[in-house]
Sequence to fold (1192 residues):
Amino acid sequence: MSAPVTTGTGADTARPPQRRVDPARWVRDNLFPTPFNSVLTLVFAPLVVWATWRFARFLVVSARWEIVETNLTLYVVGGFPREQLWRLWLALTILAAVFGLLGGVVGVTAREAAVAAGRTTATTRWDRLARLGPPALLLLVLLGFSRTFTPLLLTGAVVAIGLSLSLVARRIPAALRRAVPLITVAGVVVSLYSISSFGGVPRDEWGGLLITMYYTIGALVVSYPVGILFALGRRSSLPMVRWVCGAYVEFFRGSPLITLLFTGWLVLPFFLPADFPTPTLVTRALIIFILFTSAYVAEIVRGGLQAVGRGQWEAAQALGLSPWKQTRLIVLPQALRAVIPGLVGQAISLFKDTTLVLIIGQQDLLAIAQNVTKQDEFLGQGYIIESLVFVGIVYWVASYWLSKESQRLEVRLGVGQR
Amino acid sequence: MAETQQQRPGRATAGQDGPARPPLWRDVRVLRGVLQVGFLVATVALVQWLFGNLTSNLDRLGIRRDFTFLDQPAGFSILGAPDFRAQDTIQNALLLGLGNAVRVAILGVLLSLLIGIVVGVARLSKNWLVARSASAYVELLRNIPPLVLVIFFYLGVLATLPRLTEATFLGDVAIISNRGIWVAWLTFGDGSQPFLTAAAVALVVALGVARWRTTVFDRTGTPHRRVLWAAATFAVVTALAFSVLQPPIEPSLPVLDGRVVTGGAWLYPEYLSLLLSLVLYASSFIAEIVRGSILAVHKGQNEAADALGLSSSQRMRYVILPQALRIAAPAIGNEFLNLTKNVSLGIAVGFAEILRVANTAAGNGQPAPQLLIVVLGAYLFLSLIISVIVNVFNRRLQLVER
Amino acid sequence: MKRSIRIASVALAAGLVLSACASDEEATDAADPAAPEETVTVDPAQTEGGLLAAVQERGTLICGVSQGLPGFSIQGDDGTYTGFDVDYCRAVAAAVLGDADAVDFVELSASARFTALQAGEIDVLIRNTTWTATRDRNEGGSFAATTFYDGQGMMVDTDSGFDTIDDMANTTICVQAGTTTQLNLESQFAARGLPYTALTFEGNDQLQAAYFEGRCDGWTSDLSQLAAFRGTWPDEQGGAESVKILPDVISKEPLGPLTSDGDSEWFDVVQWVVFATFQAEEFGISSANVDSIVASTNPDEEPAIGRFLGLVDGFDPGLGLSPDWAVNVISQVGNYEEIFLRNVGPDTPLGLSRGVNSLWTDGGLLYAPPFR
Fold:
């Protein structure tokens, strides 16, 4: 039987086509190959069964999920005024539309480029389904606790808009594709402003998953270009520039993020002139995330720059390119391609690190998970476990999704295979 | 402000293509000099501007700018340090916090390395169940923010243990309650110093014996059995020292007496939850690094070892792991750095590391800017030490290789 | 395509930075996003009277309160704040802006409160903060007045067998970190020679959770706070009867509002708002009768009341407020008695009696200097 290439649950490496295996033989080969392994299996099997059983039973039977059901909105947006929630749906719709458009265009462009280069982009249906798993799980976890159907319907509408626009994007003439990234940027900015401006909700009233996402995306977008500049500075031929950039990177990499956040919280306002308006705590925390992440990005990109051979610079020089063009057109593209997994890893780290704002009194997802247990009806009854498990799953699925996408990207780009 | 920003990065590479105008401008050396001086001046000006604002703001608000507060009495006690008195100085409190941080970091590094290697090897096991369990361990832990782990262990696990009045006893050796876990330990009396010195000497002697056995093995090829030799040496010397010196060292068992437990070592929830979560989190990353490094060891090495007739555990122990760890060392060193910095997560559960101590002092009226400078300096110092150790280790590994 | 991606990413970065800056302005002036920039410049001390003018121009008062302390400041399901400290925020807003509802509340932890005041994030800190010499001097703030005379106490389980603090040798005590309470605990137990372990927490809610779990034998805090938590003790944990407050009073804890150092005009405003609530009770003026008293008072016959209510032509103490500011405070918030009884009095879960928080005429400590 010529079965299609299937990947088993969570298999990391592509396997040869599977043959039909005798179960008894499989058990002998994989569970009891040697006496030592038999002992291991006998020790591990009850443990694994017990742990799985306990966890599944907790999730399905014994957990009192009403704390999540009651406070779902709080987990997602925190203290965001409820009568303004339509702004978030509006922003989500705009984002879904522009990213659907962008996704469609990028997909079509990549496919055409692949065809032109004679590569095949063989993805099985199973692969595509597996890719959809984590985001679908994330939505399921979030929407599954909703007591009304409104969020489900609205999410469905938003997803539908995004998907239909990605289909539309495939038919956009090539000449118009150039405009799509600009439209995306405009869409992101408009969606941001549609939440906070025009009588909207200032950022210090955001909370929950919303503020977590704001910190993650805001810090990423600013710190990646800044980090690249610092990486170039560290590779500069001018010693002074090298030292200053090196000192910056080493300082921020050597300091714990919490201590830096404390500095941003308690001391940063003093670094500004007396007649300067004090930035809100949200902005100060964002600044610290940017400074911190830029240093890590600089270090990652520096690794990529080092991996680009001397010959590339010399070849670029021989072509008569200016130093700026040598960097921009020849070296950086190669360097960045080599470090994309590292950069995605840094994004995942940042996402997880946003939990630290809880310590400086911000109402992020983790802080709300703790706070809801202090409501009168849940106080002092040990609901913290349910609450933490819920946000733990949200963090886990999102990080897992990003890391899987990063691995996929790594394979697609052929990083490390040259 | 505006001009300082313009002169920041980017200029470095952009500046070299100056237009071909008068000789002075074309002179690359002059140009480079001017650029560097300009860059430095801009940086210094920016830093000076920031600190000028800081001092003038502090003066305006009447907040002290010196470090004399370090000599003032702290006024608070520190959890897990019964010998610390409220009259002791803030400086001592901060040092104690630093000591706590270092202790957790060292223990965390050792445990996470151990667990990381075991799990990393287990992920490549031929035993399907073991490999899958190890994968689950890694995927589960490395995708959860460490702060969630710390809080979960603190509030979700350790706090749900029985109350002290209903504590669980494991014979005489351990008491388990939500106020902490007490385990049997040793008490070192006042006169135990000479014996401890003797034990240290015994350790050095044992290491020397091990080295001697290795050279003998290298020269003659007789089995070295260096672990056995070293252990025997150590045991004999310490036993001798113990019987001669009669040190006042006694086993100390935890005893519950009303509301207090006396004796034993107290693993309090703040400490335990921090250590556990840091070890679990870091070990998941180390396991992934170890796995990657093992896969990166050339296949031929394994086949050659096989051809020599080594068993699979011998292949791993003598051929693969030594090479894999060499590849993994820099990345593992990075994880050690991360773990050390993550010790500051202890503030979320009230573990008295240095940031927590500084924060308490700041709440009691001591100046926050200076305190944070001290904390940042301390953590930078720890990071530096770890970097140096890792670098030295790396260099030694590389030298051994070729 | 590539070029436009590049332009796009730069524009996106710029847009985010800009929007971050824009949101700061909105945060301080949410009512009118198009307000000119100088109105949002909160500048506590640059010029004399800067903060009063800034607050009046902004149209809202930014008041720092505690993170959920029943009876003092607590946010309801509908997002509104109530409590003793909250009422004083509202009183200041009523005096300065004529509208007690024009307040933005900022919840602050014990460790963060002084920095928020120093950095100008808040106009006034009314967060059950104890007046001490160090704080008055070192923390860059000034205590305007005492609104609540408190003392530190100890709460234990009713069936614990403790009747006085002296019974509490070898115990574990829960206390909030970075407070005077923590320091008093140390000195008290040291002075009494009682060995103990202090378990510190950043917030009262974490502390309460630990107490529920039996991690500590006693909970020490200001008596008013203990009463607040005891009064709202959940039934799942045995209700209010399961815990008791020991009779010992460990220390003096005068609580009151703070303003930033170096702005004496603003300091005076906050101080006299507090005095106005005392004086109104002394005059017998409450929110119920203030309108009729204003209508019926003849300033020539009762000049003291006339001056207090702004009915005497030509009398202006120079606080920079409208003449009827005290009327606004009383009609919109109430006098001291009303504020006390509404939030912490015998009919509330806290069930506190007036005690030393009575007028000087009743043998208490509340005393307002004359309004003239």
